[in-house]
Amino acid sequence: MTENSISLSTHNGIVIPDNWAGYNLDVFSLPSHYCEDLECVFIPHGVIEDRTERIANEIMKDLGDNHITVLCVLKGGYRFCTDLVEHIKNLSRNSERFISMRVDFIRLRSYCNDTCMDEMQIIGGDDLSKLSGKNVLIVEFAGEKIRFQQWFQTRLYWI
C-alpha cells in the first residue's frame, strides 16, 4: 500500500491517510449545488452502502434467531440507522430466518445554554426499563462516542 492510498481491512474498516487527496469530483454524479462547496470525495456513497450492508450481515450473524430492539440516538445517527435497519430487513426477508425488529428513538442532551453538563439527559423514547432482558442495538453518531458509551452503559447496566 502506498502512502497516499486507501486500505481496506476487515477488522478496521476503511483507513484513509491524513494526506490523501480524495477522489476527483468529475468521476461522480453529484447535484450541481454541491459542486461549488466540495473539493473532493473521500468515501463514495456506494462504498458507504456496501459497508453498511456488511455491518447488517455481521449483526444478522451475531443475532442468531433473536429479535432486537434498535435504539437510534437522534439526530446524528438517524440516516445511518434507517439505512442499517433497511439492510437488516432485506437480509432477514431474503434468508431462511426472519428477525423481528422494533425501532425506538431517543435524544440525548449534554449541553444547557452552551455549557457542557456533567450528566446527560435522555429525551423521548419509551421507558428504558422496557429494554430489560432484550437484545438492544444502539445506533448513535460517533461525535461524543466515548463519553456517550461510558454514560449510557452505566444506565443500561442498572435496567
Automatic annotation (TrEMBL):
Which domain of life does the protein's organism represent? Eukaryota
- In what residue span(s) does the Phosphoribosyltransferase domain sit? 48-140
Cite a GO CC annotation: cytosol
Q: Known Pfam families for this protein?
A: Pribosyltran (PF00156)
The record's InterPro entries line, in alphabetical order, gives:
HGPRT (IPR050408), PRTase-like (IPR029057), PRTase_dom (IPR000836)
**Record protein name field:** Phosphoribosyltransferase domain-containing protein
Origin species: Hymenochirus boettgeri (Congo dwarf clawed frog)
